[in-house]
Amino acid sequence: MAINWFPGHMHKARKDIARIMSEVDVVIEVLDARIPYSSENPLVPNLRGTTPCIKLLNKADLADPEITSVWVRHMEKEQGVKALPVSARQPAQIRQLLPMCRELVADRNTEARNIQAMIMGIPNVGKSTLINLLSGRKIAKTGDEAGVTKAQQRIRLGERIVLTDTPGFLWPKLTPPECGYRLAATGAIKDTAFAYDDVALFLAGYLGKRYPEALRSRYGIESVPEEDVALLEAVGRARACLGRGGHVDFDKVSALLVNELRAGLLGPISLETPDMIEKEVADAQRAAEIKAQQKAERDAARRARARKNR
Ligand code: G4P
Q1: Relative orientation angle of helices 178-186 and 196-210, to the nearest 10 degrees
Q2: Range list of β-strands (E), the chain
Q3: Which of 112, 267, 282, 299 is most buried per CB count within 10 Å?
Q4: Residue range 241-273, pLDDT digits in tens
Q5: Rg, the chain, Cα only
Q6: pTM reported for the whole predicted model
Q7: Which helix (H) or strand (E) holds 251?
Q8: In 3D, which of 76, 87, 22 has the Cα closest to residue 54?
Q9: If you measure from the C-alpha of residue 134 to the centroid of ligand 1, how many angstroms do you get, rounded to a whole number?
Q10: CA of 283 to the centre of ligand 1 (A)
Q11: Is residue 261 in contact with ligand 1, taking CB distance under 6 Å?
């Protein structure tokens, strides 16, 4: 999937975050609970270093609660990390963040001063919605689009916690390649950057295996095919997404499946688990090693030919 991200913005975001990190007591990283790995900015773990971190798994109302619990346990294996599933639809859940911040920074001498928290998140994970709920007012967005760079914002949250909203462009994980599909499926990537049918096929392949029951009850398909094209075809027939000659219109059914998943109409669904990610990362690493080795072999053969022709 071709997605354009500009190295200039990556560089600026890295510099902005590194500059303020030394003053930060706790990092609040907003993730999409349906795709906690894919929606993480790849710079954060390095830049954060040993600063305590709360991973807010937002949009938990749209995610599979069992898989969200698995992610919470997985994330909290890391020293200094707490994970909190929240939904903007349940503001009481979000207020739990403040005591959690206080608890996490207990050994950082914050009794006589404000706690400095920094919030980060890729576009569309719900960062602005959460900031508005936490502060009780509407706060302007920091620039998260190419070319927009507004100043950092400091927002008082109460309980002597001051939140810094990070400016700059934070981008999601683009490898392994499955991450791109998941970001597109959940609406984190603009619709112009991908083809709906690619994403719908990816989704159909996954949902057919992991969530056949959700498909059965949403679309009334008796026997849910595991194969992606067959499944899209079945959904298309069930929803009368038909074109000429009564054939399934794949563009129509693709848009329908992606939009219904985004809106939560298939029920709570998670698109990745720690085990899936572990395997995909290992596969991507292996593929990169093979590619590098093939390139080295081609280069060596080219050099040998050049020497022979001298
Ligand atoms: P951002 O600052 O990280 O870019 O995200 P923002 O708060 O603008 O939220 C992006 C979209 O996600 C918004 O929907 C917002 O309502 C939705 N959203 C945020 N938190 C949650 C949540 O916990 N659950 C669900 N289901 N949705 C959430 P939108 O359609 O783009 O805008 P709007 O029409 O809702 O204003």
Answers
A1: 100
A2: 26-32, 53-58, 81-85, 115-120, 153-158, 161-165
A3: 267
A4: 999 899 999 999 999 999 999 999 999 999 999
A5: 22
A6: 0.90
A7: helix 250-262
A8: 76
A9: 15
A10: 33
A11: no
